[in-house]
């Protein structure tokens, strides 16, 4: 093609235009499909639908042809000047989607199946496994076809792309895809110039509700899970440049404050002038609960205090604030130690809004009387209603959550709300979502809401995690214990002799808090897990200790060869990443998956994907290091040869591990 550049920009314009048209049509088709689903219209009776489907297919075909031309132009002009690693899965998906829709214009939404190839280099790096399901679609409409022929047809329509070196048909119709090494080198090398960049995703405003302990009650391991998982999800969302609101929905309003305030008035009558010295709020809670249960006079006063608090009587508000302050300080100690950031916005924040929404729900006829209570039903999938107003007229956890979801979607105008709460509350949240939809607050076409649940933490006896005397374990004690055990472990390895006291302290914290976080994050969050310091402090297997050690070892390689980060950056301009050796190639391909792993986690919010991924990086690095020398020394320990390219590969590995560590909240140390 002569005037390559001009033609290309025309193609781009037309392709963008066609894409826009398709997306509009898609919305129409989706809408009609939904109506069909609801049995509002019958397919054969609706010429509008048939017309749209034909139109959509035609446009898709046109887009496919245009995309193909772009791909061909790109490979000729080597246009791609990337500043970040792109998602290979996504790029292959687009490429094969183009080929498949061009090859089979008669099939509506043909399946595009891209997978990682197995370990045998013969099968390439990725696979497209679409031919078999497409053959099945033909078979169902009575046409017999050979999937291998279909695979060939896909390849005939495949635009050439600099990412793909070659494709081969194998077995019943698999397409083995071989990545182009020069392309992979180029893609990975972007990190030396631009750092490890996030994949490109459409920016969203997200609110994440996590941690959320209750005032005056001790934060327990359930809250610890929410805190750790929530922090990681928040870090991931921030890394991909979303606008993130980290909200601590603490339980700071409710009837328990009646007895707490009444008890405060008795124990510290001068509380309005002098800050009461409550050091152990849990004991204070227990004392007041005991009086509440045993003394009817006190109980009466406690109820009166609730009423006064809820009508915002100043002295009662002051007492409430004092109690919240004590709790807040305790919570903050945990957050500081674990490096957690949160904005406190507890249940009390929503009180005025709760009054308002209750009125609105009532006026909309959405509330039902039930033995003096006012309840609201969700949809068929949830069979327990929300209690919006109690029989004594008070509000509940449910009603403040209705007010909160409205505040978040309508005032904060977020696109996405994520609740990180134990699985025991699943029904509450699914009912909440259904009710919010019913009330016109939540619109699933505009908003995404996720309940990110998690299983319980078990003790080593496989029973609910408790102290020997059956009390729930205080988080501070747990963290202290972790620090103690981490130090033992480091001493066992003689690290107290090799490190300076400061280095040892840093390593101790990295190990202690890292192991607690990682043990939590590396398990599928839907499962329960056994809390065991001995297991999490093992230096083999998928543990924080193993990974932190692997990282320090990797970092020490460049250090041995006297490479500072600045020198490595310089080096990357002269030297290119080597990917010829089988183990170099294997490592390079694992690193290349970084954007894919993040996108996967962004989609399903399972942080254990990232843990498995860093673990795979560490293992693949070990394999590489065992067969590829980076720095060669003679018998007296002097450096005789440095493989500069491999130093770069080592650094790239460390950089990607660091990003994963950051998302997981692990603090890597250079010396351990
Ligand atoms: N404070 C609650 C508890 O400890 C968790 C709150 C979760 N968030 C929410 N919006 N309901 O069980």
TrEMBL record:
What's the EC number here?
6.1.1.19
Biological process, per Gene Ontology: arginyl-tRNA aminoacylation
PANTHER family attached to this UniProt entry: ARGININE--TRNA LIGASE, CYTOPLASMIC (PTHR11956:SF5), ARGINYL-TRNA SYNTHETASE (PTHR11956)
**MF terms per GO, please?**
arginine-tRNA ligase activity; ATP binding
Give UniProt keywords alphabetically.
Aminoacyl-tRNA synthetase, ATP-binding, Cytoplasm, Ligase, Nucleotide-binding, Protein biosynthesis
Catalytic activity line of the entry:
tRNA(Arg) + L-arginine + ATP = L-arginyl-tRNA(Arg) + AMP + diphosphate
- Main localization (coarse): cytoplasm
Instruction: Please give the organism.
Output: Callosobruchus maculatus
Name of the protein in question: Probable arginine--tRNA ligase, cytoplasmic
Q: Does the record bear Endoplasmic reticulum in its keywords?
A: no
Record family assignment: Belongs to the class-I aminoacyl-tRNA synthetase family.
Family annotation (InterPro entries):
aa-tRNA-synth_I_CS (IPR001412), Arg-tRNA-ligase (IPR001278), Arg-tRNA-synth_N (IPR005148), Arg-tRNA-synth_N_sf (IPR036695), ArgRS_core (IPR035684), DALR_anticod-bd (IPR008909), Rossmann-like_a/b/a_fold (IPR014729), tRNAsynth_Ia_anticodon-bd (IPR009080)
Q: Can you name a GO cellular component term?
A: aminoacyl-tRNA synthetase multienzyme complex
